[in-house]
Amino acid sequence: MARNEEKAQSMLYRFREAQAAELGLGTRGDRRPKMASACKSLRECERWRGEILREISRKVSKIQDAGLTDYEVRDLNDDINKLLREKRHWENQIVALGGANYRRNVAMLDDDGKEVPGTKGYKYFGRAKDLPGVRELFQGRKEEEEEENQTFAYYKKFLNQGPVYYGDLDDNDQNLLHHERQAEAEDWEEAFANVRETLGLSSDTPTPPIPGQAAQPSIKQSSVISQATSKRKTADGESDAEMNGSRDDNKRTKTEGESDPIITETPAATEDSARLHAQTAASFIPFLQTEHLLPPKMPSHDEMESILLQLRKKALVEEYFGDGK
């Protein structure tokens, strides 16, 4: 029997080695590591990545064979996906060692510019696309995309519409507002007729005004209100001037050692202007009357002095003579 050195030099042995190298099998001592992170040489990582690419190319060519059974096609497609996953691990290791970046995240597109189904995750090659269940998967995705495109084409005409389309400018149309007021008045009268019939009121009962369409103040009332407010402002200005003058007098008298003078205040508004304001406010609030909106009547200075004097007298009488019980 020939020795091992002689066997290694034989033509058949060298042919087997070349065939194994072409198929990517390699020798027993020169096999690809199972873990890409275990390889610390950039050159070796490049070598194993090239070997995986050759295996993928060979199996992709083999999966096109029409004589393969469905089971063999499924096994080949699974092997190709495993090799792709392993290739991605080696590419990550190459990047970690400072090598070139072979990773590409560009999606595959068809003639219409849409992403080809099956390009992410698990991929199908060659006859694997015609396997039972896979063809229906691709057709279902295509039908879903067509439905989405039809829906988008239908709703596309509603995009980029102006405010007129949404009715934002209807408030500026006086004719439309007039028709709306007429319709609102008719509905109000019909509703009041139903209430009057339910409560048994007489037919002569007047229809109350619509709360949202309360009577607006007339031009005369508006002019009177403006005059009253102007008078009020002038009165306030005069009172402020008097108060400032009295403060200056107080400062002077304090420096001279004299007593402080008594400050007198002018009324803020007259009774007529207050009643006019109350009438205007009551016209907008139907369930309130003018008397309800009048400001409270404040006692005058003399009335306050008389009340305080009476209280003081009463306190002195109770202090010296008792409660009188």
UniProtKB/TrEMBL annotation:
<comment type="similarity">
    <text>Belongs to the ISY1 family.</text>
</comment>
<keyword id="KW-0747">Spliceosome</keyword>
<dbReference type="InterPro" id="IPR029012">
    <property type="entry name" value="Helix_hairpin_bin_sf"/>
</dbReference>
<feature type="region of interest" description="Disordered">
    <location>
        <begin position="200"/>
        <end position="274"/>
    </location>
</feature>
<dbReference type="GO" id="GO:0071014">
    <property type="term" value="C:post-mRNA release spliceosomal complex"/>
</dbReference>
<dbReference type="GO" id="GO:0000974">
    <property type="term" value="C:Prp19 complex"/>
</dbReference>
<keyword id="KW-0507">mRNA processing</keyword>
<feature type="compositionally biased region" description="Polar residues">
    <location>
        <begin position="215"/>
        <end position="229"/>
    </location>
</feature>
<dbReference type="InterPro" id="IPR009360">
    <property type="entry name" value="Isy1"/>
</dbReference>
<dbReference type="InterPro" id="IPR037200">
    <property type="entry name" value="Isy1_sf"/>
</dbReference>
<keyword id="KW-0508">mRNA splicing</keyword>
<feature type="compositionally biased region" description="Basic and acidic residues">
    <location>
        <begin position="245"/>
        <end position="257"/>
    </location>
</feature>
<protein>
    <recommendedName>
        <fullName>Pre-mRNA-splicing factor ISY1</fullName>
    </recommendedName>
</protein>
<dbReference type="Pfam" id="PF06246">
    <property type="entry name" value="Isy1"/>
</dbReference>
<keyword id="KW-0539">Nucleus</keyword>
<dbReference type="GO" id="GO:0000350">
    <property type="term" value="P:generation of catalytic spliceosome for second transesterification step"/>
</dbReference>
